[in-house]
Design brief:
The chain is an alpha/beta fold. 32% of the residues lie in helices and 17% in strands. The chain has 4 helices and 7 strands, in the order αβαββββββαα. It has a 5-stranded mixed sheet, with helices on both faces. 33% of the residues are buried.
Length: 174
């Protein structure tokens, strides 16, 4: 990335291809491109990752624009949410009207800066990194789970999918 955290779309393509060649379990993409001329190649790479079993987690842009890879069906898309309670590393939400598919902690994240200070920062990149970490834990527990299975597990275990918490009432059997 260069000035203003901007770079060239071709660097995104090269980086994604490099990552796919190494076959990681999970790739976190906290960047994207609004350049429509690059979208077909981005999609080819995302489809290759999908069929190789690589889970790709992508942050939506912090601006209200459509970008790739975040607006692709081949990725798990994430944006930030504000925490309603104290910090819980497994607090993330499924969004029934995607994109984004998920909301994860990314609001006022405490980050160390170069002056040995902790500063609060906000952005969808932090949320994507958070959910990529959860996806990596899922893959560690279920190594054979592909991207669609990881997505299903995340959807099923999201805070709003599993109810308000331990105080919920047990299901009544008829």
């Amino acid at each position: 990335l260069g000035a203003n955290a901007c770079g060239r779309g071709t660097a995104l393509l090269d980086g994604l291809a490099w990552a796919i060649e190494r076959r990681p379990d999970v790739v976190n993409l906290s960047l994207g491109t609004p350049r429509r001329d690059l979208w077909p190649r981005v999609q080819e790479l995302l489809d290759e990752a999908w069929f190789r079993g690589i889970v790709v987690v992508a942050a939506l842009s912090n601006r209200p624009i459509e970008t790739r890879p975040a607006h692709s069906a081949s990725v798990i898309s994430v944006a930030t949410h504000t925490r309603a309670r104290g910090y819980d590393p497994f607090e993330f939400y499924v969004n029934p009207t995607a994109p984004p598919e998920f909301g994860a902690p990314g609001f006022r994240v405490e980050l160390a800066n170069g002056r040995r200070e902790v500063v609060p920062v906000t952005g969808n990149s932090f949320a994507a990194a958070h959910l990529a970490g959860v996806a990596a834990l899922v893959r560690a527990k279920h190594p054979a789970a592909g991207p669609s299975e990881v997505r299903a597990i995340l959807r099923a275990t999201a805070r709003n999918a599993r109810g308000p918490g331990p105080e919920r009432q047990p299901r009544q059997e008829n």
